[in-house]
Amino acid sequence: MSHEAVKAVQAAVSADPENVPLRLALADLLVASGRPAEAVTEAAKVLARDPGNAQALALVTGGVGDGPTASAPTPEAAPAETVSPETASSEAAAPQEPAADTPPDFDWHHAEQQLDAAVPPPFVDPRQAETGHLRPGGPPQAEGVAPLEPGLPRISFADVGGLDDVKQRLNESFIQPMRHAEIAKAFGKSLRGGLLLYGAPGCGKTYMARAVAGELGAGFMSLVMTDVVDSYRGQTEKNIHSVFQEARHNDGPTVLFLDEIDALALKRSGLTGPASWLRGSVNQLLLEMDSMQGNNDGLYVLAATNHPWDLDEAVLRPGRLDRAVLVSPPDATARAAILRTHLAARPVAGIDLAALTQATEGFSGADLEHLTVTAAEKAMTESIAAGSVQPLTMHHLQLALAEVRPSTGEWMQSARNVVRFANDSGRYDDLRRYLSTREASGKSGQRKGWWS
């Protein structure tokens, strides 16, 4: 097969990446050119757009061993000819004819049964699934579910699955006031503020902060301890001031995100001995959030931490981070969206999302990603042993579930102690309600309501 022909079709695919027949034609050309790995890559891209495409499934599941298709013997190679993109597209769209030397009475159905080439659809139809039972998918009786489109760099609340209570609190506290500034001023609402997102690690606090900036159409600045801490006395305070000044001078509203704020705003009573120099950093942060010059309009400070109970009380007073919102582990809707997103980019078959969602109760978003990566590694190992790409199935996810455990358990135990002994002010009432709901539904294995 002419190398120039492959390059010509590749150029056509680049110009029209949504053209499935043209991409399949490119995959056939790559197989004929002795480049099966690249052909499988193109077939996987087809499956991302058309999960039930039989020709792409044949390529991905091992039909690339001896030629462009796995359904018929391939005739002897003819001399290479230059193929134009238009010709390749029309050939791909035309139905595939059996080879000339195939007997007219050849039993194709019997041959297909012998090869056992049936591959389940990428995702099981929920109407055919038995909720709560993990099992491999059956034959492709229903059309596969289309994968989610990849998110854009600027995201919004629509890109965040679940967490409706967090979205509502953020929307009321500052998104709507910033969108309708005149109405907000009439009610004495200033165009500034701060809010603390807290919860178990890996539950999407940083992702939610990016969504807030996307909802506002605002600039997004992120600050972590390594950005500002300096070995010279006084330089850390100058760095904090410089970051806030840059945020104030941005055109339009700006979200300044303080990730892991407990690294910058620990309780000053505990900063003694060698750590006493960090007191100046906490003081500077408090001054910047107050802004004595009154020029914080349009600047919203959004902070995140796993341990809000370690923060200095002055940081949490009204006018600074006066609102705290729990970002809990993803609910069922969010888990289904996260799992679909991570699985859609891989060759999958027979995935029962309903059963998988139920089996991952208590998993954080990071845990769900780790689960899919572990399952993908097992499918990859199996594919390497087989010499061809094998789809990721529920069997691989079952094996991964036996290894991956939710990482939120230790944080939940600490949270129970805080709710029981350190919630006199009611600051963590939303955490108490969340834990109470988990206990009432029997999801945590502890006695119901023992901390209340």
> Which structural class is indicated by helix and strand composition?
mainly alpha
CATH architecture of the largest domain: 3-Layer(aba) Sandwich
For the termini, the CA-CA separation is 74 Å
What is the CATH H-level superfamily of the largest domain?
P-loop containing nucleotide triphosphate hydrolases
* Biggest sheet architecture: 5 strands, parallel
Q: How do the helices and strands follow one another from N- to C-terminus? A: HHHHHHHHEHEHHEHEEHHHHHH
**How many strand segments?**
5
Oligomerization status of the protein chains: single chain
| Domains (count) | 4
Low confidence ranges: 63-83, 85-100, 129-152, 444-452
CATH third-level topology of the largest domain: Rossmann fold
The 3D shape can be described as elongated
CATH secondary-structure class of the largest domain = Alpha Beta
Write down the Rg.
Answer: 28 Å
Strand order in space, largest sheet: 2-3-4-1-5
Give the helix tally. 18
User: What is the helical fraction, as a range of percent?
Assistant: 40-55%
Q: Approximately how much beta-strand content do the residues carry?
A: 5-15%
Averaged pLDDT: 76
Region (Disordered): 59-107, 119-144
Protein name: AAA family ATPase
InterPro entries: AAA+_ATPase (IPR003593), AAA_ATPase_domain (IPR050168), AAA_lid_3 (IPR041569), ATPase_AAA_core (IPR003959), ATPase_AAA_CS (IPR003960), P-loop_NTPase (IPR027417), TPR-like_helical_dom_sf (IPR011990)
Family: Belongs to the AAA ATPase family.
